[in-house]
Amino acid sequence: MIRFLEYLAVFLLLVVLQEFVFDNINLGGVVNPYIYIMFIIMLPLDTPGWLLLLLGFGTGAAVDFMSGTPGLQAVSSTWLAFVRPAVVGLLLGKDLVYEGGIPTAGRVGTGKFLRYAAVMVLLFNIPFFILEDLSGGGWIIALRIVLSSVFSVGIIYFLHLPFVHTQLKV
Predict the structure, then answer these.
(1) Separation of alpha carbons 46 and 38, rounded Å
(2) Cβ-contact 161, 102 below 8 angstroms
(3) Model's pTM, two decimal places?
């Protein structure tokens, strides 16, 4: 029960930060950081697939509700939760999945964590920005994906540092 409350607090903190701080950052109409996906990125490695999907959808739906983007965040977050097990297996290794725990730089190494976070953020941003701008702005969409991803990964790295020495488990 205590672990549930810890994850609930992290979830609420990230959603509130997203809504009131990071949704207000729009550098030149190109950089829009989405840090709430850190909740999905930092879930325990042994989280069952069905729970990942529910948490991914719920996280995106909560941000959709607060920011008025009907379904856009929910679709992208659910997609991210769907691909997470494959990304974890490819980038972090199957041994870590069996051990459980949360993926942090202290646990998997800074390089591996940054690669993992970067791939996860890119996998979120690609469908998000394409669906957001269906008019097809080509290079502008690509620029938004890359710059927003770089900015988001940097923020997620620094926000995850308090978890480096804390091993939350479900």
Answers:
(1) 16
(2) no
(3) 0.89
